[in-house]
């Protein structure tokens, strides 16, 4: 038996809570992992609260991330005792996930724990941090370099935003951090932000082309914020768009793309090919100072995950939430 969060659904609606499950109920997979630590991402909070259509089959153990130790394996790449990390692949959406003491998954979905991170540190990073690195890699691929000019990060006090701010600053970029929480200015400056901007500057409909300000941007917001960000990107700059914290819509015009050669680079972490994942984790090991992880992380007990999901969606959680299980 093992502890897990279970989401169930019937005619009266969806419920989520802590429960004990029999290992015989674990889904198919060639590697069984004793989970040491999981996390709570924006997507997990949508799944647990039912506020977004994340869960595709019920009952579901949520949790798109975990780090743990292989207990048994029929996969050539893994042996009992190996320390592994999982991010995405539909785990916590279509396949039972990481908010549980045990998980059974396809070995092909796992990556080895990246030195020098501990399992807890890997989960402080989690999908949010690995996605932040995919965004940074996209900016680099499109020629945005530390000397190119200021780079904007939206939702900067959230999970993706905190890691993106820290990584970009360590790489030498001048980071302008957008937040709806001005009280987090010192936190963001501590991560390396050079400038703090009020989210309200980006939430009203703006002109198709605004003043050219940013060489690049990492956007977690989508919606009107993303439209305004695109309108203020400098000639041939790039926006890495990964989120919808401000909405699914994109009320923009093509003007920034056809008149300024702006690139909108879409970022998906879920089905991202293995080679890119391994590269992102190698880059995190090189370009993220592990010393900042404790300060951006709030550990919560498995039993507090449901309540924390509400707080996270209300924008009241700073940085990352981890769920230690070991
Ligand atoms: P968090 O909840 O940790 O952070 C989101 C942040 O967005 C908040 O902290 C807040 O930052 C800001 N925000 C909240 N509401 C709004 C709003 N209405 N308009 C603009 N900004 C807002 O979530 P994560 O960092 O984990 O994820 C951020 C987004 O990225 C989510 O939409 C998530 O689904 C997406 N995502 C996508 C991935 C992919 O593969 N494409 C992978 C991981 C995440 P502040 O208080 O500083 O303003």
UniProtKB/TrEMBL annotation:
Q: Where is the Enoyl reductase (ER) domain?
A: 13-323
- CDD domains associated with the record: MDR_yhdh
SMART domains xrefs: PKS_ER
Q: Which Pfam family is one of this chain's hits?
A: ADH_zinc_N
| Annotated TM spans | none
What domain of life is recorded for the organism? Bacteria
Molecular function (GO) terms listed?
acryloyl-CoA reductase (NADPH) activity
- What protein does this entry describe? Oxidoreductase
